[in-house]
Design goal:
This protein has helices at 6-54, 62-81, 84-92, 98-116, 137-161, 167-183, 190-223, 228-255, 264-289, 297-302, 305-340, 351-379, 385-405, 411-435, 449-454, 460-492, and strands at residues 120-122, 346-348. By secondary structure, the protein is an all-alpha fold. The chain is elongated, with a radius of gyration of 26 Å. The termini are far apart.
């Protein structure tokens, strides 16, 4: 038999190897989007194993294992959606890289959850459902399971659509829907639901107004002064002191409440004291950093970089301390009811449950967080360190004001409302400058109406998508929860 020339054999081998390489490249390209869901699924399975090991009952209670899996799923979704509100402005302002933001947020969120996370959680989601209306422990367990599943699915859908929504409202909607399906409309505490509905408007409007006021102050006192650097030396330490005082009060009231109980008046005393100390420390540092700076807006912006990073880290710590209960609250309720045969308005969160919530938030942030971080940080409106600083400051101030007034507000709505407030203020300010008398005499070049519309500084498509998602969060989560509860109840019975 005649043999093929040696060169043709090598050519055939090269062709085959090239085909294999192309298949490998195609496989890697197709598999890349599956890496995140695969890791998240592995974490959920691990959470179920942890529940089976630490629950301490034999035989293994599969309801608790399933609840742990869905609790881990909820925690991952909170990390993917909610944490973007704290880190998005800092990334959009280029004060942090995406990797740096994820690392800082993961550390601070986990620390907040594990160090200062709530050891007691309201299983009926702040009085939304009357416990006496659900007499059967088994029905209560299925209601909590339905709330957990539905709220996680809704937050996942919102993340996929690119809409930052309130996980607190998702859980509240889930509990409400399951409660109505289990015990009827009379089971719901409608005055509490009315306050939550009011917060849909109060949270973003108040956050946006405060952010816009601080931006207006910075423009008037620093950017529009003839000597910007001298003005910055005067006012930036004041703003840093305000930030420190506000966050000290915020953490005393919210972030550290499980370590030490501090009432509102004490927190309001601690805040100004920390603020004054921070001003005394910041003034010489700002003076030293501003030496040799050019008299330009760009130079002033750099002075806000470090305060912005610190504020984002503190927001993440407080978020981890407070919102981890959204992920593990229903899970803790199921564990308590299964273990004791009864359910109560408040129960302790076991350590292994808190660990699932803390690590789930970090996994969700790392795997899926960049999408919403980019949305909040750069796709709604353009941010720089000064504007992002105003957003972070408004978030902390709004929570303090709302707590003082007894209003239930969403940190998500506040932060995103702050971004909207900064953007809409810039639009208003631009229109005001274009309409001033100088435009009529040629000092300022007039711009046609169509061009002004094109130059809108807040993307209306994102604005409408996010507002629509906010409005339908509670009814959507409630409807989904009612369906899940009815299915679970029918299957088990």
């Amino acid at each position: 038999m005649a043999q093929a020339p040696q060169g043709s054999q090598w050519k055939t081998l090269d062709t085959d190897l090239n085909r294999i390489s192309q298949v490998e490249m195609a496989t890697a390209y197709v598999a890349r989007p599956l890496v995140g869901p695969g890791i998240a699924l592995a974490f959920m399975v691990l959470a179920g194993i942890i529940a089976a090991i630490f629950f301490g009952q034999q035989p293994v209670n599969y309801v608790v294992v399933a609840a742990a899996v869905f609790g881990a799923y909820m925690a991952v979704n909170i990390g993917a959606n909610d944490v973007a509100n704290n880190m998005g402005p800092a990334v959009g302002a280029n004060a942090l890289t995406m990797g740096g933001a994820i690392a800082i947020a993961a550390i601070c969120e986990s620390a907040g959850a594990l160090i200062a996370g709530g050891d007691v959680v309201s299983t009926i989601s702040k009085g939304i459902i009357d416990p006496s209306s659900i007499a059967d422990t088994r029905i209560f367990i299925w209601a909590m399971m339905a709330a957990l599943v539905s709220s996680a699915l809704w937050v996942n859908l919102a993340t996929w659509a690119g809409a930052p929504v309130s996980t607190t409202h998702s859980v509240v909607g889930g509990v409400m829907g399951a409660g109505i399906a289990a015990a009827g409309l009379t089971a719901v505490n409608w005055p509490s639901m009315g306050l939550i509905a009011a917060s849909w408007v109060i949270s973003p409007v108040l956050g946006g107004a405060i952010a816009a006021l601080f931006l207006a102050f910075i423009k008037a006192r620093i950017l529009y002064r003839e000597d910007k650097i001298a003005a910055a030396r005067t006012w930036v330490p004041v703003l840093v002191g305000i930030m420190a005082g506000v966050f000290a009060t915020y953490l005393a009231m919210k972030g550290l409440k499980q370590i030490i109980k501090i009432d509102l008046m004490t927190a309001l005393i601690i805040g100004p004291a920390i603020g004054a100390l921070s001003y005394a420390l910041a003034a010489p540092l700002i003076r030293k950093a501003s030496v040799g700076m050019e008299n330009r807006n760009k130079s002033v912006k750099t002075l806000f970089g470090l305060p912005l990073v610190i504020s984002a880290a503190l927001l993440s710590f407080a978020h981890g301390a407070n919102d981890v209960a959204n992920a593990v609250g229903p899970l803790a309720a199921i564990v308590h009811a299964t273990e004791n045969g009864v359910f109560e308005a408040k129960v302790a969160i076991p350590s292994w449950v808190m660990v699932i919530g803390a690590f789930g938030i970090s996994f969700g942030l790392f795997l899926f967080g960049p999408k919403l971080i980019r949305m909040v940080g750069s796709q709604i409106t353009k941010l720089n360190p000064m504007r992002a600083y105003c957003v972070a400051l408004s978030a902390a101030i709004t929570v303090i004001v709302a707590s003082w007034l007894g209003l239930p507000v969403s940190s998500t709505h506040i932060a995103v409302g702050g971004v909207f407030g900064v953007g809409f203020y810039r639009e208003w300010h631009m229109e005001r400058r274009l309409r001033r008398p100088g435009a009529a005499v040629g000092k300022v070049k007039p711009i046609a109406k169509e061009e002004r519309r094109r130059r809108k500084l807040v993307r209306r498509s994102h604005f409408l998508t996010i507002v629509a998602a906010w409005v339908i969060t509670v009814p959507a989560a409630a409807s989904l929860s009612a369906v899940v509860f009815l299915v679970l109840n029918a299957v088990v019975n």
